[in-house]
Amino acid sequence: MPYIILLMEDDDVLRRYLAKLLRGDGFEVIEAPTIKTAVESVQEQKIDIVVADLKMPDDTAIGFMNKISDLRLHIPVIIMTAYGDWETYLEALDLGVCAYLNKPIEYSDLKEKIKIGLLKNKH
Question: 4-122: what CATH class?
Answer without folding.
Answer: alpha beta
